[in-house]
Write a structure and sequence with these properties.
The protein is mainly alpha-helical and about 375 residues long. The protein contains 10 helices and 8 strands. The strands form 4 sheets. It has a two-stranded antiparallel ribbon. It has a two-stranded antiparallel sheet with strand order 3-4. The chain has a two-stranded antiparallel ribbon with strand order 5-8. A hairpin with a 4-residue loop joins β6 and β7. The longest helix is centred in the C-terminal third of the chain and has 23 residues. The chain is globular, with a radius of gyration of 20 Å. The protein starts with a strand and ends with a helix.
C-alpha cells in the first residue's frame, strides 16, 4: 500500500493512490476507493487525500473519469460508482464534516450524470459503456474482458445498478449527517426505486440468480460474480433469494472452487484463467463478504474471508508479492494466468500482458479481511460467545 501511495504531482494537488506504479502509473476511480478502506484504519487523513484527488477530477458535465494522469489527461469513460461509500467510510474515522460538505455536491452531480447518461431505456437500471475492443469490451465496468460482454450488447447491468443504488443510499446518509433532509429524501427514493427494479427485472427465478438483461428484456444467462452484488442492497432481500444465491456460491457446478469466488462460473463455456473469465479477484470477494454480513450470513462471510486470506498468503509465501488475481481452481500459479492473452516467457514489469504484482487493492482488501475478522473474533470473545 505504501509503495502505491504517491505525493502531489502535476494537476493532482494532494496525495493520491495508484493500482500499481507499473504498468498503470495513473489514478483510477474504484481502485482508489478500495485503497481507502484499509488506509482508513491506518491513516484516515491520507485516505481522504486519495478520495479528494478523485473527486477533484470531476468534469463540468458531472462525469468522473475512470482514469486520470498527473498531466490532467483522463479517459472518456467512468467506472463503478463507489465514491459515496468511500467518503462515508472515511468520515466514520475522521469525523470531519468539512469533508462531507466538500464531497456532497460532487457526489450528487456524479450520480445524476450516471442516471442521466447510462440508462438508455429509462427503466432505472444502468448499462455499462461497451467498447469495440474484443479484449476489453467494458473497461468502464472494471470487468474488462468478462464473457458478460462478449456479444458487445448493451445490457441492464446487475453490478452497475447495485453500485448506483448503494451509493445513492450513502449520499442520503451524508446529507442526513449534514442536516439536509430534503436531499436525503431525494436520494433515498432514488436508491429504493433502483433496488426495486433490480429485484423485479434482474432476478431469474428458474436459475435462482441475478443476471444482466438485454434491451429486449431477455436475461443474458452469463453467470458471473456480479450476480452476487444485490447482497449489498439496503432494501430487504427475500430470504429465499438469499438462500438460492448461497446455494450458487457453494455449488461446484458454478462457483465452488478451491479458491472462491470465480469471476465467471465454471459452468460457462469460456471459463479460464484470463482476468475476468474465471480468476478470483479480491475486490469482488470483499464485496460479497460485505454483502453476506449485511444479509445476516456472518458464518458464510467468515468462511469466505478465511479462504481468501489463505489464498493470498499461500502465494505471498511463494513469490513475496500480492497479485492482481488468482486461478480459482489453483491449477496454475498467478504468473502463469493469462491477462488478455498468454503471459510473457520471462516476467517483465514493463509489459501489461502479465498478472500485475504488488497490486494495491489486493493488499488493501486482504488487510481489511484480516483486521475485520480479527475484530469480530475479539468482540465475540468479549461478549462471551466464544
Amino acid at each position: 500500500m505504501k509503495v502505491n501511495t504517491l505525493a502531489s504531482e502535476g494537476t493532482i494537488k494532494q496525495r493520491w493512490s495508484t493500482p500499481d506504479r507499473v504498468p498503470h502509473q495513473a489514478m483510477w476511480l474504484w481502485d482508489s476507493v478500495f485503497h481507502t478502506l484499509a488506509m482508513n484504519k491506518l491513516d484516515p487523513l491520507l485516505s481522504w487525500d486519495f478520495l479528494k484527488s478523485v473527486l477533484d477530477t470531476q468534469q463540468e458535465s458531472g462525469m468522473i473519469p475512470h482514469m486520470t494522469k498527473v498531466d490532467g489527461s483522463g479517459s472518456s469513460i467512468t467506472q463503478p460508482p463507489l465514491l459515496a461509500w468511500g467518503v462515508w467510510e472515511n468520515y466514520c474515522h475522521t469525523k470531519q464534516r468539512l469533508h462531507l460538505q466538500y464531497a456532497l455536491p460532487i457526489l450528487e452531480r456524479y450520480m445524476t450524470w450516471n442516471l442521466s447518461n447510462r440508462d438508455r431505456n429509462g427503466n432505472g437500471l444502468l448499462e455499462w459503456m461497451i467498447e469495440g475492443n474484443p479484449l476489453c469490451r467494458s473497461g468502464e465496468s472494471g470487468m474488462d474482458n468478462s464473457p458478460r460482454f462478449d456479444r458487445a450488447a448493451v445490457l441492464d447491468a446487475v453490478d452497475f445498478s447495485v453500485f448506483a443504488a448503494r451509493d445513492a443510499d450513502f449520499i442520503a446518509l451524508i446529507a442526513e449527517e449534514l442536516e439536509d433532509p430534503e436531499t436525503a429524501k431525494h436520494w433515498k427514493e432514488k436508491a429504493s426505486y433502483i433496488s426495486r427494479q433490480i429485484e423485479a427485472l434482474l432476478w431469474d427465478e428458474g436459475e435462482g440468480f441475478y443476471f444482466d438483461r438485454d434491451m429486449d428484456g431477455n436475461m443474458s444467462q452469463v453467470r458471473a460474480v456480479s450476480g452476487f452484488m444485490p447482497l449489498l442492497l439496503n432494501q430487504t432481500m427475500p430470504i429465499e433469494r438469499i438462500e438460492r444465491l448461497i446455494k450458487n456460491l457453494y455449488d461446484p457446478q458454478h462457483f465452488r472452487t478451491k479458491y472462491p469466488i470465480a469471476s465467471t462460473a465454471v459452468s460457462e463455456a469460456t471459463y479460464g484463467t484470463d482476468m475476468w473469465r474465471g480468476p478470483v479477484w479480491i475486490n469482488m470477494n470483499y464485496l460479497v463478504y460485505t454483502g453476506l454480513i449485511k444479509q445476516g450470513r456472518a458464518e458464510d462471510a467468515k468462511q469466505l474471508a478465511s479462504v481468501t486470506i489463505g489464498m493470498v498468503r499461500n502465494y505471498y509465501e511463494q513469490y513475496g508479492v500480492i497479485f492482481e488475481y488468482y486461478d480459482s481452481y489453483d491449477q496454475v500459479p498467478p504468473p502463469a494466468c493469462y491477462r488478455k492473452g498468454p503471459p510473457s516467457a520471462t516476467y517483465d514489469i514493463r509489459r501489461k500482458m502479465d498478472v500485475i504484482r504488488d497490486y494495491h487493492w489486493s493488499a488493501s482488501l486482504t488487510a481489511c479481511l484480516m483486521m475485520e475478522t480479527s475484530q469480530r473474533v475479539e468482540e465475540a470473545a468479549s461478549d462471551g460467545k466464544i
